[in-house]
Amino acid sequence: xxxxxxxxxxxxxxxxxxxxxxxxxxxxxxxxxxxxxxxxxxxxxxxxxxxxxxxxxxxxxxxxxxxxxxxxxxxxxxxxxxxxxxxxxxxxxxxxxxxxxxxxxxxxxxxxxxxxxxxxxxxxxxxxxxxxxxxxxxxxxxxxxxxxxxxxxxxxxxxxxxxxxxxxxxxxxxxxxxxxxxxxxxxxxxxxxxxxxxxxxxxxxxxxxxxxxxxxxxxxxxxxxxxxxxxxxxxxxxxxxxxxxxxxxxxxxxxxxxxxxxxxxxxxxxxxxxxxxxxxxxxxxxxxxxxxxxxxxxxxxxxxxxxxxxxxxxxxxxxxxxxxxxxxxxxxxxxxxxxxxxxxxxxxxxxxxxxxxxxxxxxxxxxxxxxxxxxxxxxxxxxxxxxxxxxxxxxxxxxxxxxxxxxxxxxxxxxxxxxxxxxxxxxxxxxxxxxxxxxxxxxxxxxxxxxxxxxxxxxxxxxxxxxxxxxxxxxxxxx
Amino acid sequence: xxxxxxxxxxxxxxxxxxxxxxxxxxxxxxxxxxxxxxxxxxxxxxxxxxxxxxxxxxxxxxxxxxxxxxxxxxxxxxxxxxxxxxxxxxxxx
Lengths: 479, 93
Known about the structure:
The complex is a heterodimer of chains A (479) and B (93). Chain A has 479 residues and is of the alpha/beta class. Chain A has helices at residues 14-25, 57-72, 143-153, 169-179, 193-203, 207-222, 274-278, 322-336, 342-369, 374-378, 394-402, 408-415, 428-439, 442-445, 459-463, and strands at residues 4-10, 30-34, 75-78, 81-86, 100-105, 111-121, 125-127, 140-142, 160-165, 183-189, 227-229, 231-237, 244-249, 252-259, 262-266, 269-271, 283-286, 291-294, 307-309, 385-387, 392-393. Chain A folds into three domains: 4-125 and 270-367, 3-Layer(bba) Sandwich (FAD/NAD(P)-binding domain), CATH 3.50.50.60; 129-267, 3-Layer(bba) Sandwich (FAD/NAD(P)-binding domain), CATH 3.50.50.60; 380-445, Orthogonal Bundle (Arc Repressor Mutant, subunit A), CATH 1.10.10. Chain A is built from 15 helices and 21 strands. Chain B is built from one helix and seven strands; from the N terminus they run E-E-H-E-E-E-E-E. Chain B is globular. The chains are: A alpha/beta (479), B mainly beta (93).
């Protein structure tokens, strides 16, 4: 493809959909790239073609954004896997500046690339799960995974489920399980009742969320579901698959064994920053926003010219704040590209900045509930796997730290932690926290350098089909 | 053969017609287009392969964790990102 897009938007969740819609409606040439077969992101994930489910509030919100996107004229490339980024600051020293370049595989697995003058990252979040004994047993999955099973597949994670971890997803998942006739064996909440009470003032900005949360809690009470507040899962047990979990109060005391065929567990959400790391943008550590986030100005520009980041990938503020942040960033890109005057920009951006500030307050309170709890990391036993891809235990990480690993890059090189196909997305938080305890905090621990490919890709798909005769053979050097 | 009815599929949802696929040689039925990870879960197939020192199964459902890797026609894919199709031959990885 030789055309140069004005703006490429990576990720079609609420931020990406709103950003692409806003920019396309204002005449920009926009392409929106998404790994799933349909736009929506995880929160507004659409079911596959041919599945018809009763619409709930999330589904309607997602359908509204999808309809506006479809009408906007923005190009959509769905089911694509973007593995490479280039251009911008990644142009080799001494070469002329070039637009951003993205390399991907399309839905049929064929390679493609495109270039854009501005790049807006709306890559959202991934779930943090701090390891515990038995967390590798089949039947243990993320809270977010359970919500995706419900809304995108119409499927229950199990028939007798323990729901554990932190944040509002706990109660959302428990309520959905009850609604569809599954048994909730227990809710195990890291937060105490007091922590929830302290979050209430910020949540009052979003009465809809408060009402929904109250309804979820009421259903649990009604069905007599035991809620263990200020408690954690100490182990998952089973022969080949999950059969039971062990629960204990955070301050200690007796363990309780609860039988279950599924454990849905999540310790908060973490912004997905692979792409901004690969561009070597500056990042800062903000535990209240989920951890490492790109350093951004008030209109979501990163420290790399032309590279913007919006939505939860810019820091956790929730689905309600995401569309506003996407629109603010899209408008900033339009102005920076010279496609919009400063006066038009100021008028267009102002309402979204107000919306964002209001929605971000409630979202920020929820993000604080989901912040990493160092005590969980401290409690990981030596023999428990931290890095599942490479089989690295807590003890192996401690050994690498004893040998002098002082950064995430060194820890990766010493122990192979984070070197497998998940590229540190599943183990990175626990590993970084273990390192941080030795080097004086997460800032000092840093993060592993962003590396390509952003996602695993099959080598033959990248090479494509070729004939050996087509390979240029340089003339032999004179002897 | 594992039939397409599963206590994990939420009732009251209109689904496409069922197709047949195989996992480790066993025939399973699932609605066309369902996520392979969901179809395997519904059929009671939770153990999808083995990593170093631990079994692997469905964890994130969003293409991040790589724990649901299986082979379709011999090629590694993430089950959570792969829709099921008629005749698909799936094996543990």
